[in-house]
Amino acid sequence: xxxxxxxxxxxxxxxxxxxxxxxxxxxxxxxxxxxxxxxxxxxxxxxxxxxxxxxxxxxxxxxxxxxxxxxxxxxxxxxxxxxxxxxxxxxxxxxxxxxxxxxxxxxxxxxxxxxxxxxxxxxxxxxxxxxxxxxxxxxxxxxxxxxxxxxxxxxxxxxxxxxxxxxxxxxxxxxxxxxxxxxxxxxxxxxxxxxxxxxxxxxxxxxxxxxxxxxxxxxxxxxxxxxxxxxxxxxxxxxxxxxxxxxxxxxxxxxxxxxxxxxxxxxxxxxxxxxxxxxxxxxxxxxxxxxxxxxxxxxxxxxxxxxxxxxxxxxxxxxxxxxxxxxxxxxxxxxxxxxxxxxxxxxxxxxxxxxxxxxxxxxxxxxx
Length: 368
Ligand SMILES: *Cc1c(COP(=O)(O)O)cnc(C)c1O
Hints:
Blueprint: H1 3-6, E1 11-16, H2 17-30, E2 35-36, E3 38-39, H3 41-45, H4 49-59, E4 63-66, H5 69-78, E5 83-86, H6 95-101, E6 104-107, H7 110-119, E7 124-128, H8 140-148, E8 156-161, H9 173-188, E9 193-195, E10 212-213, E11 236-248, E12 253-254, E13 260-261, E14 266-271, E15 293-296, E16 299-302, E17 312-315, E18 329-333, H10 339-345, H11 350-356, E19 362-366
Parallel strand pairs: 1-19, 2-10, 3-4, 4-5, 5-6, 6-7, 7-8, 8-9
Antiparallel strand pairs: 1-11, 11-14, 11-18, 12-13, 14-17, 15-16, 15-18
Pyridoxal-5'-phosphate is lined by residues 39, 41, 87, 163, 198-199, 214-218.
């Protein structure tokens, strides 16, 4: 992108495809006896299906998981021979759309199983077993009924999977319960592949890798082991430019409803990015509650006041004057200000931060 068109954008999202591929290889190395897949739902966690899938494909990834059929269609366009699973399963009447793109539904309810048995034309599918999350998947009584009625014998089940509810908390007792329940279910389907691990699962000592893993967040640089150093490389760098600066006197209020007041004379910088760009309004920094931060000239600066639709105000009092001029670039994610820290400042998780990343940024891809 040229300088001229670059200046049409207030904010820039840079995605490092080499770091993404490296993260996939690191996860794959943790499960050498299994195949490492990739979860690319929600536009590859905001990073772009059309760029992320080919980059992972070149690294060796052959199996992709999405949430929606519409996402599977986009994956198929850029990965003609990949295996694609749709985690949210079979919406009524969608079997023919699955056939058209050669994707496999992850079936998790008796009605879905019945419909695929009728309309699936014997094609491959996955079975989602609930082991304690109570969200998607067959519970133990539905599973027993399916086995008793031999309904599964009319299906070509390629994969049996379950999903952890708290894999990022290693000592949560739910993990062992889910591992044990899944081990019992796995025995019932000796022919099918098994899949258990999400990103954090790759770092959970009690969880066997089985045949295929399903990392998402960690691929995109999220920390799969909260509270410990992040073993992944950062993938996303978000920057925005300073529109103007001002000095406010002690006691002056800033932003909508003056939720933040200057303590002493403060220098402020207004940057070209807000909640309409996907930066959470919950990162607002008020007198009562701290919020988000950004790096200006390498100095960590707190937000001042509420996050507006298109703008955020920063307190840049501690930044050398030469680094906080109009047009200067401010780092919102990157350069050591990691995704999980940023998310905490916005009272959310890095997952939501990533998947909210707006369309108004200038996007660029590096690597490969
Ligand atoms: C989103 C999702 C994953 C990936 O989880 P991460 O924590 O992002 O690695 C894996 N499995 C299922 C069923 C999911 O919905």
